[in-house]
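Researcher: I'd like a structural prediction for the single chain below. Treat it as a standalone chain; there are no partners to consider.
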Amino acid sequence: MTALGISLIIVALALLVAEAHLSTGGLIGVGASAAAVGGGALLLLSAGAGAALVLIVALSAAGAAMSLLLLARHRILRPLQARPRTGIEALVGHVGVVRSSGGPAPHVFVDGSLWRAEPSPIHQQAELHEGDRVVVERVNGLTLCVRKAEEWELNP
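Model: Treating it as a single chain, here is the predicted structure.
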C-alpha cells in the first residue's frame, strides 16, 4: 500500500508538470489533485492512521487543491480564448478598403498593407467594387477572404 501511495504522488507530480506545459484548461490539474489526495490517503493508511484522520486530511487536501484550481482558472483559461495579436491570423475581423476591383483578383488595403482578396465563399454573389469597406473573414495563404462590411461593423 505504501508503494501505491508513493506511485500516486509521483503520478501527481508528473501530471502537474504536464499541466504546466499543455493548455488543457485545468483538466490535467484535476487529475493531479485526485492522484495526490489518493496517494496521501494511502500513505496515511499504511502508516497506521485512523480512518477519521485520513478522511479529514484527504478532504482538506482536496478542498485546498480545488480552491487553488478555481482561483487559477482565469489564468489557465486565458490562453485558450486569446485572439492572435500578430501575424496574418490577426487580420481576421479587421476592416479594410477595396483599392482595385479590376483584374482577376481585387486588392484590399488592410492595416497598412495591400492584399490580394477574394469574396468569401458564403458571400460570393456580392461583387467587390473599388471603395467598398470589407471585413476579413479568413486568410488563405497570401489571399484574404473578405465580405462587405455591415453598418454596425463600421461604427466604432
